[in-house]
């Protein structure tokens, strides 16, 4: 499908009236608060539909059947199945509306993918082997082990030049035996494909089989931003990209983050990287210092400290510190050996002595005690 841009890009548009041809109980997996849960509802088939069923790398449309929200649209052969929460009467004529904001976003991303794929192949010979239209950003898998930054920059310039050139995008429908199909780019048809083949023709740029929704002119893409690459499967490279309104939202979010960092770091945007680098190095240094202090504390907790002040064989002062039990046991013996007076509590024993002559013996006593405790 190719559409002209409507005046409004919000709300529900393109109302159609069609008959309900089937309605049966069903269920679907839905993510609720980060967890996948089974939701019960009804599978509805209509005489025809304007809602795109998921396929070809593109998610499905959302919308309304009457006033009932359509939660998912899938394809069964040539038919679309709409999952809704309420039953609909078979034979009833209903009005369909499509969620245009979601539809147009998908149109921009999908047409943007066709453009990037075509230009990447013509410039570098890199073929697209698959792609995914994600919720936040989209990915093209290229058949190359790597992509140089200069190549990505040149590719981005080239695709945006095509957007500014206002290139038309048209739909063709060809039969399976049409010779023109030989000139069409394709990654193959689904096993259950039936009927004529739908072609998306970007004038002078690309002709490709596709069932998805597209813009009618490349100018509707507004802009394409290539975010970077990631290592893909064996010998593949994943190219990340944004198109149109997603680029504007990305810029708005990036600016908001930038202003927050200015406030937190007290520096301008040009200095954010250097400032964060300095902070990380400072934190790393403090962590290393703290680790050293913790080790010292651990040693002190298990070690007896014996300090003395005075001449070798004359009077002086001493301090014995360490675990309370050890200090209480050894303190009186040290006092006796050094012929002094003193007292202690809470892991500290100190006193005044008459002679330091036996200080060596005291050190030996303490060392042997520590060895026996190990």
From TrEMBL:
The keyword Repeat does not apply. PROSITE patterns: AA_TRNA_LIGASE_II_ALA. Its cofactor is Zn(2+). GO terms for molecular function: alanine-tRNA ligase activity; ATP binding; metal ion binding; nucleic acid binding; Ser-tRNA(Ala) deacylase activity. The lineage of its organism: Eukaryota, Metazoa, Chordata, Craniata, Vertebrata. GO terms for biological process: alanyl-tRNA aminoacylation. Functions in trans to edit the amino acid moiety from incorrectly charged tRNA(Ala). This is Alanyl-transfer RNA synthetases family profile domain-containing protein. Transmembrane segments: none annotated. Keywords: Cytoplasm, Metal-binding, Protein biosynthesis, Zinc. Residues 44-253 form the Alanyl-transfer RNA synthetases family profile domain. It is found in: Cytoplasm. The keyword Amino-acid biosynthesis does not apply. The gene is aarsd1. GO terms for cellular component: cytoplasm. Belongs to the class-II aminoacyl-tRNA synthetase family. Alax-L subfamily. SMART domains: tRNA_SAD (SM00863). Its main location: cytoplasm.
């Amino acid at each position: 499908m190719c559409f002209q841009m409507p005046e409004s890009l919000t709300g529900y548009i393109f109302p159609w009236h069609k008959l309900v041809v089937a309605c049966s109980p069903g269920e679907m997996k839905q993510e609720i608060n980060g967890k996948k849960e089974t939701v019960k509802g009804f599978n509805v088939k209509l005489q025809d539909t304007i809602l795109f069923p998921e396929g070809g790398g593109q998610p499905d449309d959302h919308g309304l059947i009457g006033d009932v929200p359509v939660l998912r649209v899938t394809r069964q052969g040539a038919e679309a199945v709409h999952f809704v929460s309420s039953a609909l009467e078979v034979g009833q004529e209903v009005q369909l509306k499509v969620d245009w904001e979601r539809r147009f976003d998908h149109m921009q991303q999908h047409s943007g993918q066709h453009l990037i794929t075509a230009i990447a192949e013509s410039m570098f010979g890199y073929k697209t082997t698959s792609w995914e239209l994600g919720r936040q950003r989209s990915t093209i898998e290229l058949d190359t082990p790597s992509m140089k930054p200069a190549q990505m920059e040149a590719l981005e310039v080239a695709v945006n030049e095509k957007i500014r050139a206002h290139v038309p995008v048209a739909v063709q429908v060809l039969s399976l035996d049409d010779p023109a199909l030989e000139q069409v780019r394709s990654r193959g048809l689904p096993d259950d494909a039936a009927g004529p083949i739908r072609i998306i023709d970007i004038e002078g740029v690309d002709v490709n089989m596709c069932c998805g929704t597209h813009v009618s002119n490349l100018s509707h893409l507004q802009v394409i931003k290539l975010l970077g690459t990631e290592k893909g499967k064996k010998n593949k490279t994943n190219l990340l990209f944004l198109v149109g309104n997603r680029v504007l939202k990305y810029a708005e979010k990036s600016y908001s983050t930038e202003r927050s960092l200015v406030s937190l770091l007290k520096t301008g945007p040009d200095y954010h990287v250097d400032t964060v680098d300095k902070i990380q190095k400072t934190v790393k240094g403090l962590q290393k210092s703290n680790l050293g202090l913790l080790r010292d504390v651990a040693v002190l907790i298990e070690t007896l400290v014996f300090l003395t002040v005075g001449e070798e064989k004359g009077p002086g002062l001493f301090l014995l510190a360490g675990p309370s039990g050890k200090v209480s046991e050894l303190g009186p013996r040290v006092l006796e050996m050094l012929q002094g007076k003193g007292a202690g509590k809470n892991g500290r024993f100190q006193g005044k002595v008459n002679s330091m002559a036996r200080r060596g013996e005291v050190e030996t006593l303490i060392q042997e005690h520590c060895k026996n405790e190990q």
